[in-house]
């Protein structure tokens, strides 16, 4: 099975990260070391994250054989998603970071959802303990772009989805290739699903043949109830443009992917200011909010 490694040529030693996210109904916790997943804890705790998060963190640390004093940083999902859930995660991360004097790395929950959903769909896992993240080599963005052009490899599009009610979704757009971390093509936001799919269909139609994605992955909350309606909307609107490249993959967020995204930020020295880190309470664009209000 393939593994996704964070390019890590700059690693000057093991980086132990505690990672967690409570922006969805799934509470996700992981402990990472140098790109390897030491332990992971995943459970459904909708509307009850605050009561179980601390115990879930401790359980993951115990399973990893890591004391909190041995941590080098904290990665936390900042949303978008559940307003209360994102606030709980960020508040807990800031409290722990302050008490332990650790750097904190805010991670887009949609980025982690996109990474995890796409990787799982493609049969990839977070590197297991003992695997060398540095072995994959670090490349600059310019080097990566040049190598990609030479290899003529088409990337995938990844569209993460979280239901936001009333025909809306929390979503974004990423592109990725096997063994590499996704790159963002569109910002996190709350959008009307039909409008968003139409926008993606337009992007796809306008793309040159060499720029068209090999596959389009719709990942996340696509399995039951209203979420199923989102999947059907994707197929109906994108289908004529995407054809057989469109894949819908139900996926629940896992902590290891939050940790891998956090590791990338830690390697770049891209930490957040402890006292200014806030959840991403993204709002519907004004034009769409007005249109929705008239509906």
UniProtKB/TrEMBL annotation:
Residues 45-120 form the Gcp-like domain. GO terms for biological process: tRNA threonylcarbamoyladenosine modification. GO terms for cellular component: cytosol. The lineage of its organism: Bacteria, Bacillati, Bacillota, Bacilli, Bacillales. Pfam families: TsaD (PF00814). InterPro entries: ATPase_NBD (IPR043129), Gcp-like_dom (IPR000905), T6A_TsaB (IPR022496). Gene3D superfamilies: 3.30.420.40. It comes from Paenibacillus antibioticophila. It comes from the Bacteria. This is tRNA (Adenosine(37)-N6)-threonylcarbamoyltransferase complex dimerization subunit type 1 TsaB.
